[in-house]
């Protein structure tokens, strides 16, 4: 975690208020819908709660262990454009962290 980004495991619409309380301005969801089955909240549900709370929201699903250069470049564009700090999440937070670290290694992030 840095001043501009944090990582988390799966969040649900009911946790968006806590995200706001912690000072985040944007959320990036890196977990594909239905990856965890029907109990997993959908991106649309989380996006609705996020936008209602005044947060920017991006759905950029990536498959664990299969992050491509295009995924990294797409993420970097979102990262550079979104209000900071950004909360990134997936199932455990690892995939989101990997995406961030790869973009950093490729010198694609503006901070």
Walk me through this protein's architecture.
With 111 residues, the chain is an alpha/beta fold. It is built from four helices and four strands, in the order βαβαβαβα. The chain has helices at 16-21, 43-52, 69-81, 94-105; strands at residues 5-8, 26-29, 56-59, 86-89. A four-stranded parallel β-sheet has the order 1-4-2-3, with helices on both faces.
Task: List the topology elements.
Blueprint: E1 5-8, H1 16-21, E2 26-29, H2 43-52, E3 56-59, H3 69-81, E4 86-89, H4 94-105
Parallel strand pairs: 1-4, 2-3, 2-4
Helix pairs in contact: 3-4
Short characterization:
The chain has about 110 residues and is of the alpha/beta class.
Order of helices and strands: EHEHEHEH
| Uncertain residue ranges | none
Can you give the helix content as a percent range? 25-40%
Based on CA inertia axes, which overall geometry fits? Answer: globular
**What Rg is obtained from the alpha carbons, in whole angstroms?**
13 Å
Average of pLDDT: 96
Q: Main β-sheet, in a few words?
A: 4 strands, parallel
The tally of beta strands, per DSSP, is 4
Percent in strands: 5-15%
- Alpha-carbon distance between the two ends: 13 Å
Given helix and strand content, the structural type is: alpha/beta
Name the descriptors.
4-stranded parallel beta sheet; 37% helix; alpha/beta; 111 residues; globular; 14% strand
């Amino acid at each position: 975690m840095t001043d501009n980004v944090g990582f988390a495991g799966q969040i649900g619409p009911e946790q968006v208020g806590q995200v706001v309380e912690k000072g985040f301005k944007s959320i990036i969801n890196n977990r594909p819908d239905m990856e965890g089955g029907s109990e997993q909240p959908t991106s649309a549900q989380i996006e609705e709660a996020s936008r209602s709370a005044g947060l920017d929201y991006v759905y950029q699903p990536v498959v664990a262990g299969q992050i491509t250069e295009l995924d990294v470049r797409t993420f970097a564009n979102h990262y550079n454009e979104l209000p900071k700090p950004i909360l990134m999440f997936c199932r455990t937070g690892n995939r989101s962290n990997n995406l961030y670290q790869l973009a950093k290694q490729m010198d694609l992030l503006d901070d």
